[in-house]
């Protein structure tokens, strides 16, 4: 069966953008086109998959058609992919499958979200729309509250305290400090993160990702056309996804994400490697507790040891066995919902090719992983990447 | 002399065969409703009090200030030809009596002073929230969707499919269609975890009231029968919940949308 590689990747800076959706998407697509080492024309693209929650409702229908016709891709089959914050992780998987099926050779996977052009009053209506609206939302929960429920229960079940989450926040802000694409670039001390404004007890402001504008775009190619575009591709050696109960209260355990575990298991199996072979991972840290749980669910720490993993600084760049969130993660780099998944892939493409700012380059990285979660874990896409093709 | 008991955060007064349920709060010497109470929530609680204490009663009429549909779904009562009247007083009270007027005086019962500014702010917030022009611009639960699961929401009726299922589902994990609701969950459950969400992060349904209340507290609980659920807390101003706490369930006003009060079940820390 055909193998799939990434031959180009680009994104906008995450944060508050003056331009609207069309402008942001065009910028991300242009950056992706420009990143291709050899000659590349948008007309070579066969299909496009664009993840977006369509936050604010500005362009709910036919989003992908609008964006692609504004970026040199008019006429090809396109669609919006929606799976909450995992929208573009699933767009990436769909694009990968399109090539795997043999129906396409060059496919775009991307994502976009415009979040900061809404008034605070209107933004409220779009908070927490990806939980169980009928039961969780009407119990007063948006996602800070949902993840706070998970955090408090985790502290109860295992040897861990909020200090472990503070360590994650401090690490991710340090990782994102030199990332020119990051939304929040500032060094945050342990004390400052520990004593931040209480958003949802026990989670403070420093446990929560920001709401960001942003777009990201990656170009995938079938193995038999890769050489047309680059001699230095990044291979997608494993792609898997899973789902779970939407509402937290329907799950047997709220201190683990079964969808993550199932997707990771399949992705590792497909790639022929295990968690200890991963050098860097872009992990879905919408809240710090989400990263702690992910380190366990992805196999970097044993169940119940995620707190210790964070306490020991095991995920810090070039210090531990694996670098967790070298981009700064959602916490520092930002979280434009639909753009986050393929934004993780942009970071991995550049890290594995040695193209990020030298101060934050993960050394000698061969294998990487991206982990993109929708809601509180109802959907999850995991991809495993390699400098080398898993033949 | 009437006997006064605390029940569901209200005061129950009984004398011979008459019962009155009254708000514990007063403002400027007048008895007033709490933050999320009205005649309907008090009517539900008095019926539940009578049922839980195995006191026989029949109801012939219900005051029009009480939402009868909600009362009926929450309690299962049916009207009969010859019975008592469920009527509303002017002093945030509801009484069940055979005579037209309550014979129980509530003015001299214990009361809790409520801050007048807080009271007025909450009244104004509900008025704004219930304005017909206050419409959703994003996440939305339609009246039809809300009504579909109303019996599960108001009276905690669950499905029985070898194991107890709540909230309701259409199919079980084997893809077999489930029967309609058939069993009541326990009136108490244990706290598995909890949070207090700041006003800034509250869903839009609570956005007007949450800043006045200083945020919203939510608990996830586990019932003895197995199901878990999340509920807003009520009457928790003086004590935050703890994992392992026992909570009881009360029907209160949840939020207002398009001019309609949506009622729901909230959790209340159970002492003793």
Architecture overview:
The complex is a heterodimer of chains A (391) and B (272). With 391 residues, chain A is α/β, with parallel strands linked by helices. Chain A folds into two domains: 4-119 and 211-234, Thiolase/Chalcone synthase (Peroxisomal Thiolase, Chain A, domain 1, 3-Layer(aba) Sandwich), CATH 3.40.47; 142-206 and 236-385, Thiolase/Chalcone synthase (Peroxisomal Thiolase, Chain A, domain 1), CATH 3.40.47.10. Helices cover 33% and strands 18% of the residues of chain A. Chain A has 13 helices and twelve strands. Chain A has helices spanning 21-35, 63-69, 87-100, 120-125, 143-157, 162-176, 190-194, 226-229, 258-271, 288-297, 306-311, 329-332, 340-352; strands at 4-11, 47-51, 78-81, 106-113, 198-200, 203-204, 214-222, 234-243, 280-282, 323-324, 367-374, 379-386. In chain A, helix 3 packs across helix 13 and helix 6 (162-176) crosses helix 10 (288-297). The longest helix of chain A has 15 residues, at 21-35. Chain B has 272 residues and is α+β, with helices and mostly antiparallel strands. Chain B is 19% helix and 34% strand. Chain B is built from six helices and 17 strands. The chains are: A alpha/beta (391), B alpha+beta (272). The A-B interface holds A 56-57, 121-122, 124-129, 133-142, 144-145, 148-150, 152-153, 156, 197-203, 247-250, 254 and B 136-141, 145-146, 149, 167, 192-198, 200-207, 216-218, 220, 227-232, 243, 254-255, 262, 264.
């Amino acid at each position: 069966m055909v193998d799939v590689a990434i031959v180009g990747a680009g994104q906008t800076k995450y944060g508050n953008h003056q331009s609207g959706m069309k402008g942001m998407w065009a910028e991300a697509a242009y950056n992706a086109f420009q990143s291709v080492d050899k000659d590349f024309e948008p007309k070579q693209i066969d299909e496009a998959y664009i993840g977006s929650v369509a936050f604010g409702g500005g362009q709910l229908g036919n989003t992908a058609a609008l964006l692609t016709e504004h970026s040199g891709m008019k006429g090809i089959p396109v669609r919006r992919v929606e799976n909450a914050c995992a929208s573009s992780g699933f767009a990436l998987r769909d694009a990968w499958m399109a090539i795997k099926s043999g129906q396409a050779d060059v496919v775009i996977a991307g994502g976009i979200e415009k979040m900061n052009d809404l008034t605070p009053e209107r933004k409220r209506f779009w908070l927490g729309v990806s939980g169980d609206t009928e039961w969780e939302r009407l119990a007063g929960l948006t996602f800070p509250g949902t993840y706070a429920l998970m955090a408090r229960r985790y502290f109860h079940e295992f040897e861990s305290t909020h200090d472990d989450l503070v360590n994650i926040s401090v690490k991710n802000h340090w990782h994102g400090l030199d990332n020119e694409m990051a939304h929040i670039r500032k060094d945050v001390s342990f004390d400052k993160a520990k004593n931040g404004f209480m958003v949802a007890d026990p989670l403070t402001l420093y446990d929560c990702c920001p709401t960001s504008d942003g777009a990201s775009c990656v170009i995938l190619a079938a193995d038999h056309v890769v050489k047309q575009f680059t001699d230095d591709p990044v291979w997608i050696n494993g792609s898997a996804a899973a789902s779970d109960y939407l509402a937290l209260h329907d799950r047997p355990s709220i201190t683990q994400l079964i969808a993550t575990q199932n997707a990771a298991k399949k992705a590792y199996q497909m790639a022929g490697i295990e968690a200890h072979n991963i050098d860097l991972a872009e992990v879905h840290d919408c809240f710090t507790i989400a990263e702690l749980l992910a380190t366990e669910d992805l196999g970097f720490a044993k169940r119940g040891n995620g707190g210790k993993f964070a306490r020991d600084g095991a995920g810090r760049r070039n210090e531990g066995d694996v670098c967790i969130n070298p981009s700064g993660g959602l916490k520092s780099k930002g979280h434009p919902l639909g753009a986050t998944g393929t934004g993780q892939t942009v970071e991995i493409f550049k890290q594995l090719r040695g193209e990020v700012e030298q101060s934050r380059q993960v050394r000698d990285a061969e294998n990487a992983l991206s982990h993109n979660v929708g809601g509180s874990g109802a959907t999850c896409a995991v991809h495993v990447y390699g400098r080398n093709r898993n033949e | 002399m009437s006997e006064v008991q605390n029940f569901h955060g209200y005061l129950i007064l009984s004398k011979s065969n008459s019962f009155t349920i009254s708000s514990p709060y007063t403002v400027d010497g007048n008895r007033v409703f709490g933050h999320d109470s009205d005649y309907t929530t008090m009517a539900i609680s008095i019926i539940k009090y009578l049922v839980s204490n195995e006191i026989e009663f029949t109801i012939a009429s219900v005051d029009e200030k009480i939402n009868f549909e909600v009362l009926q779904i929450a309690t299962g009562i049916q009207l009969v030809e010859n019975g008592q009247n469920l009527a509303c007083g002017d002093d945030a009270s509801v009484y069940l009596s055979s005579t037209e007027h309550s014979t129980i005086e509530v003015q001299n019962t214990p009361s809790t002073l409520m801050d007048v500014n807080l009271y007025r702010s909450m009244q104004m917030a509900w008025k704004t929230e219930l304005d017909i022009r206050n419409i959703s611009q994003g996440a939305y639960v339609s009246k039809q969707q809300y009504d579909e699961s109303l019996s599960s929401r108001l009276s905690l009726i669950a499905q029985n499919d070898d194991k107890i299922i709540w909230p309701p589902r259409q199919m079980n994990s084997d893809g077999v269609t489930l029967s309609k609701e058939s069993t009541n969950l326990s009136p108490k459950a244990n706290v598995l975890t909890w949070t207090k969400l700041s006003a800034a992060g509250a869903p839009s349904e609570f956005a007007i009231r949450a800043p006045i209340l200083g945020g919203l507290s939510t608990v996830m609980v586990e019932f003895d029968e197995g199901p878990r659920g999340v509920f807003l807390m009520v009457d928790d101003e003086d004590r935050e919940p703890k994992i392992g706490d026992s909570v009881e369930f009360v029907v209160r006003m949840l939020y207002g949308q398009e001019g309609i009060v949506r009622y729901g079940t909230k959790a209340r820390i159970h002492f003793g």
